[in-house]
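Hello Y.,

Per our agreement to keep a running log of every chain we model this quarter, I'm adding this entry. I've kept the format consistent with earlier entries: sequence first, then predicted structure.
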Amino acid sequence: MKVKPRYPETIEYISEALWDGKTGGTATVTDERTIVFDTPKTYGGRGEGVCPDEMFVTAVIGCLINTFLDFQKKTMLELISLKLKGKATAKFDREGYRIVGIHVDVEVVVDVDDLDYVDRAIEMMKKYCHLTRSIKDCIPIEYDVVVKGEKMED
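Predicted structure for the entry above:
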């Protein structure tokens, strides 16, 4: 059975980057929002902006959070907090660097009455995040998940 998406079938994301004349630049994305990026000091840069590798791992964990929140809304799961920490590991393979793995630590705190439902939202997050779906065949992704239950304040 084919599933009909709730959102548009095709979405385009556009970013334009302009070199700053030194070791980085500025990217302009939708609605004229800007991101300053730079080469890390480790690689001879000034380190005055976000490293593109940091943007990459941030994009992955940001997509995971957005996906989790989409399922959380549908299930009306009482979410107290959600924290993801991502680490992308790059290795030099005699030709250049390559991302060889991503590790994601997930900490979810929900109302104690919703502990039975949170695992499903986490599985949906892992399954449907479009960025992790897109890279999973070339970059392994590992998850460490901690779920805590707390009583919601009235």
